[in-house]
Design brief:
The chain contains eight helices and nine strands. With 228 residues, it is of the alpha+beta class. It has a domain of 156 residues: Dipeptide-binding Protein, Domain 3 (Dipeptide-binding Protein, domain 3, Roll), CATH 3.10.105.10. The longest helix is centred in the C-terminal third of the chain and has 17 residues.
């Protein structure tokens, strides 16, 4: 949980995206069906809370300002694909975590080398870009059946698996909303994910245009059935 408090999301948004995106607190983006606004109250940017959480867990500040516990330094391995945006995000997060005593080692790599490390499970952090118009995307990212694919947090919680399975199996909107709210809050309580920003895409249109809709990934507008 210390990491949830430690990261300056607004600073990241300003430095990396010039303030054009929105700080995120949920693993779902705000426009996604069943987004739970209560997630915005679970954490806040508070380096002091982060430090207190680490202290309570036994991580004491050692040499060079890096925290230690039982002779082990609090070192985080973070391989990334060496793209400008990924590098900028990682450097911003790195600065936030170093400020509370974590040694974050960011390693920019070529794509093939990066995936070799991921497949070998040689990482502590993994940067993921996922958006969807449907909350079932959470099954892709956090169901235990996907730990060899996109569940790179290696998150395996039977209770959450069941909620994910139940949510995709029902077509009752109210039931889905309730289940996905519980899932989002549980993932954050378990610190299985640290949301950073909601990316915002602007699509200009005439006010009379009707019938356009987003694709399944919430990235592209489809105009097959539009009318003016």
């Amino acid at each position: 949980m210390a990491i949830e408090y430690a990261i300056d999301r607004d600073g990241l948004n300003q430095s990396v995206y010039h303030g054009t995106n929105k700080v995120a607190w949920s693993p779902l983006m705000r426009p996604t069906f069943a987004y739970d606004a209560n997630t915005e109250k679970m954490y806040s940017y508070s380096p002091d809370k982060a430090r207190a959480t680490l202290e309570a867990a036994g991580w004491k500040v050692g040499s060079g300002g890096v925290r230690e516990k039982n002779g082990e330094k609090l070192t985080i391995a973070w391989p990334i694909i060496g793209r400008p945006a990924d590098t900028a995000i990682a450097q911003s997060v790195q600065a936030s975590l170093q400020a509370v005593g974590m040694d974050v080692q960011v390693t920019p790599l070529e794509r093939a080398a990066y995936y070799d490390l991921i497949r070998a499970n040689r990482y502590h952090f993994n940067l993921m870009w996922f958006s969807s118009s449907d909350p079932d995307v959470l099954r892709t990212l956090f169901h235990s059946s996907n730990i060899t694919a996109f569940n790179r947090a290696k998150y395996q919680v039977p209770e959450v698996d069941k909620m994910l399975d139940d949510a995709v199996a029902t077509s009752v909107p109210a039931t889905r909303i309730q289940l996905y709210a519980s899932i989002q809050e549980r993932l954050l309580r378990d610190a299985a994910v640290v949301p950073l920003v909601d990316t915002i895409t602007h699509d200009a249109k005439r006010t009379t245009l009707r019938g356009e809709h987003l694709d399944a990934l919430a990235t592209t507008v489809w105009f097959y059935d539009t009318q003016v």
